[in-house]
Specification:
Length: 100
């Protein structure tokens, strides 16, 4: 019984398919890391808004969010979720959402 050897072209095609598979896995991994980074930064901002005893600092974050968030949001669903951004501060919907 003779085992047929793959041609160089077949081997290159197989390696290219493996490369594409690995590239997809790498992209997924990079997206997951980026998402985790964003979640952690958002959690820090919300934590500082809720718990910071430095009212001037927390107020600065709140003011910055009131000013920048409407310019940043694109999707209607995101705008609706954060439409109370004008209330950011002690009665913020953002703070309430993390508690509920």
């Amino acid at each position: 019984m003779t085992v047929a050897r793959k041609t160089i072209g077949e081997r290159l095609a197989q390696l290219e398919a493996q490369r594409k598979t690995l590239q997809i896995r790498l992209s997924k991994q990079e997206r997951a890391i980026d998402t985790r980074r964003k979640v952690l930064i958002g959690a820090l901002v919300l934590h500082r808004l809720e718990n910071d005893r430095d009212v001037q600092f927390a107020g600065g974050i709140a003011e910055w969010l009131r000013r920048e968030l409407p310019k940043f949001l694109i999707r209607d669903a995101d705008k609706q979720l954060c439409q109370s951004a004008s209330k950011i501060g002690s009665d913020s919907l953002l703070m309430k959402s993390s508690a509920g």
